């Protein structure tokens, strides 16, 4: 580790490591990069504890295009991230997403979202009740008014594989990683000057990137700044199914999609099991170290909804569960990517609100472009910049799970 770096990234999970990779891989970038990560095991990181899925079914074209880039990047990940003989394939299962609507309001939202998705070239179709029943015979579709199904480009993959692939490639390209914690950030007027680590080291910084996930607000406050991001707990359950419906679909080689029930409960295959979760009834800010699962959600919310949706889910048993944290943007539940308008060498990459894995490649590329060129070169992410935080102007996205 040197005494100074052109770019210091606070947080080394998927977002921080994506930024590091895109910087180091850019031939126009000649600088040095340091990634500071407090826990190299990543045991409690949002990356490691996520449901590791990707979808193109959003309502805002920016989010659609962010995920379209993510899909292509994940498909080609092994080739792009190869280091020597190591090719980190991500086992990408393109099972698709299936959104179900049983009210006219939900159906109208799907129609409006679909128009945006199709305009962006996403491979998404709208289905009527009989088409849903024909494609997925195990489902009870009697109450369904409309469904939206992603035929390709959506699914789930190896979450830690994505993170470690970025990290290993970045290190092979000369990025330094240090196991430490940023405890202070030096600032002179409108410029970040350095970071102080828990070990006592003071490292000068040309640019600082805040990629500290649910702790983003803590990092920002060290610089006298603010970002409306806080940890919100989400519990995931893995369940066994006495009569598994996997393989029963008449589309996509029998594979079931990630289904979002009108109740908000979601469910997808996970090997021989299924992975499920639901929006919490109450959603307070969580303690930074609170990872206790909300066990009652399975019996009180998830099982009744799934049993009503499919006879195959009447006899299920939870076999594992864990809780992770969303880096929840309290303004509008969407990513914040861009510099602070007054402290321009402090760049935010925060507030992904459960979409960090799928949005990591585009966010990492975007931040790298800001550092190298002073602006976005490929996908313009200006609408999700920090200025909207200052102006209290939410970025509209209707398809938030």
UniProtKB/TrEMBL annotation:
Regions crossing the membrane: 7-24
A Pfam cross-reference name: DAO
Source organism, top-level taxon: Bacteria
UniProt KW keywords: Membrane, Oxidoreductase, Transmembrane, Transmembrane helix
GO CC list: cytoplasm
InterPro entries: FAD-dep_OxRdtase, FAD/NAD-bd_sf
Gene3D superfamilies assigned: D-Amino Acid Oxidase, subunit A, domain 2 (3.30.9.10), FAD/NAD(P)-binding domain (3.50.50.60)
Domain FAD dependent oxidoreductase: 6-370
One annotated GO molecular function: oxidoreductase activity
Any one GO BP annotation for this protein: mitochondrial respiratory chain complex I assembly
Protein name: FAD-binding oxidoreductase
């Amino acid at each position: 580790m040197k005494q100074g770096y052109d770019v210091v990234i606070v947080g080394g999970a998927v977002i921080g490591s994506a930024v590091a990779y895109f910087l180091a891989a850019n031939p126009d970038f000649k600088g040095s990069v340091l990634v500071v990560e407090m826990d190299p095991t990543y045991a409690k990181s949002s990356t490691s504890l996520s449901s590791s899925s990707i979808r193109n079914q959003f309502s805002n074209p920016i989010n659609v295009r962010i995920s379209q880039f993510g899909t292509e990047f994940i498909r080609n990940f092994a080739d792009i991230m190869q280091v020597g003989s190591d090719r980190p394939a991500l086992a990408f299962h393109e099972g698709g997403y299936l959104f179900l609507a049983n009210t006219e309001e939900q159906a109208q939202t799907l129609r409006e979202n679909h128009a945006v998705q199709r305009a962006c070239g996403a491979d998404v179709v709208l289905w009527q009740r009989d088409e849903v029943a024909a494609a997925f015979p195990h489902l009870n579709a009697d109450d369904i008014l409309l469904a939206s199904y992603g035929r390709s480009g959506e699914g789930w993959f190896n979450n830690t594989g994505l993170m470690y692939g970025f990290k290993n490639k970045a290190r092979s390209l000369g990025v330094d990683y240090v196991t430490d914690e940023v405890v202070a950030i030096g600032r002179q007027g409108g410029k970040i000057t350095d970071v102080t680590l828990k070990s006592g080291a003071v490292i000068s910084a040309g640019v600082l990137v805040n990629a500290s996930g649910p702790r983003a607000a803590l990092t920002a406050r060290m610089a006298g700044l603010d970002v409306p991001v806080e940890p919100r707990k989400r519990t995931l359950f893995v369940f066994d199914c006495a009569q598994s419906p996997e393989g029963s679909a008449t589309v996509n080689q029998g594979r079931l999609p990630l289904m979002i029930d009108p109740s908000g409960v979601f469910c997808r295959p996970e090997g021989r099991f299924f992975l499920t979760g639901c929006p919490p009834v109450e959603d307070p800010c969580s303690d930074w170290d609170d990872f206790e699962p909300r066990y009652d959600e399975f019996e009180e919310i998830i099982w009744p909804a799934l049993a009503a949706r499919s006879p195959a889910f009447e006899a299920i048993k939870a076999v594992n569960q864990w809780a992770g944290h969303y880096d929840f943007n309290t303004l509008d539940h969407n990513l914040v990517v861009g510099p602070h308008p007054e402290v321009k060498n402090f760049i935010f990459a925060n507030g992904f609100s459960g979409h960090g894995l799928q949005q990591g490649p585009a966010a990492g590329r975007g931040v790298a472009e800001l550092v190298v060129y002073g602006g976005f070169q490929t996908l313009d992410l200006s609408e999700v910049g920090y200025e909207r935080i200052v102006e209290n102007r939410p970025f509209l996205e209707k398809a938030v799970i």
